[in-house]
Amino acid sequence: MSDYRDLRISVIGAGMGGLACALAFAKKGFKHVDVYETASNLGFVGAGIQLAPNMVRVLDRWGCWESIAAEATNIRSSSIREGATNRELVHVEMPDIAEKYGYPHCTGHRASLAGGLYEGCKKEPAITFHFSSSLAGVTSFGPDKTVFTVQPRNAEAYEVETDILLGADGIKSAVRTAMLRVLNVEADVEDTGQAAYRIMLSRSQMEHDPELLALLDADCALRWIGAKRHIVAYPISNKTIYNISTCQPDVNFAAAPGATYTTRGSKPAMLKVYADFGPTVQKMLNMVPEGEVCEWKLRSHSPLPTWILGAAALVGDACHPTLPHLSQGAAMAIEDAAVLAEVVSSAPGGGDDREALFKALKVYELLRKDRTTLLVDLAAESARTLHLGEGKAKEERDRQFLNAKKRGTPIPDKWASPEVQHMIYSYDCVQEARDKFDELYATLADGANGHANSGSNGHANGYANGNATEVAA
Predict the structure, then answer these.
(1) Residues 224-261: tens digit of each pLDDT
(2) Which of the residues in the chain have pLDDT under 50?
(3) Is 65 exposed, middle or buried (CB count within 10 Å of its CB: 0-12, 13-18, 19+)?
(4) What is the CATH number of the domain that holds 222?
(5) Which of 282, 300, 318 lies at the terminal end of a domain, its last residue?
(6) Which domain holds residue 214?
(7) Whether 433 contacts 343, CB under 8 Å
(8) C-alpha angle with apex 454: 452 to 460, nearest 5 degrees?
């Protein structure tokens, strides 16, 4: 029997999911991990990101949490406010998150998280990065080796033969496109009707205003809510930056090309969208320099019947992108990576048995699909609740916010609700994979995930009633 650590692992994409996949497999002892990235370098950009305990649990296992934590803010409370009046609907104290779940809930810069993962990868001799290299196509998903074509930016295309192909290439996933073509399944990218501004204000911009400086120096995540719109804000980067993320109806992309996901925004248009929000919000939005307003289109794709084909698997936004309202998009991708490395290393046969590898990947799907679907649905539900306009539904929501001032009671904002936090934060994806692998593997008949698999896994996937959506904040 061969050693599973000799299997060749090929990762398409070096975003959060791709970096996590590479690091997860290297930490499990795999010796040949190749990452193919279209960009010429990682050049980390983006704004703030929330670092929940379930994500931190995985990062700590990989040894890369300490450096990320050094720049993070430990969030100890959440304030949900009415956008127009700044009236606080509920204030949720969260002083004991680390005590309850073993790790704090923090906020940080996306560049810090991605950089921490990348630095972890660079310490692993098993990982090789191929920049300026895009996936041109997949020649074969099996049943033998998986074969795909790489197109370097300034060189001839070449073929790669691999044992495991992981599509961590996001909402526009080329791996997903190739997989669904073989399966004769359509799951096109779709609009959600929503867009987001991402804003970062510096301490130097805010320090002359006592009210704004108090926001920056607090260990609090704020949410201002209004009809069809909301704003989330929190400190990052050792409280030198105040991160602001918005969500509003998508009206500025109407004339943009279908493939466009970001556009240079108009400051007057942004101010108009939030014109009825209170003075605190107005002060912050007016601080954004003209010409530095960027708006993101929130995209989705149709529900996927399967994430697996032969020895290829989809990861993160390629298979279950989500609205940002639970702050779990990156966490789910990182958990995907950890579970994939766990199940592949557990496959019987030490890597020689191709059918065993196929079935191990199917176990990954069984472990992850219901879980991620639940979080995707909760995020969408939270958005609908937060964006209510005037009427009885809003009155009932605000009554629930008022009742939630009693600690421990459910909160309409799912992110801040104690029972939802417990469900998410207490979850240990690696432990679940270890506990359930044998049981789930035994349920799969030979050929359950063959190279022409229709995608049916006999396990409720929960996608029947809604689409997945791209992460935006």
Answers:
(1) 999 989 999 999 999 999 999 999 988 765 445 454 45
(2) 1, 254-255, 257, 259-260, 450-473
(3) buried
(4) 3.30.9.30
(5) 300
(6) 192-300
(7) yes
(8) 140
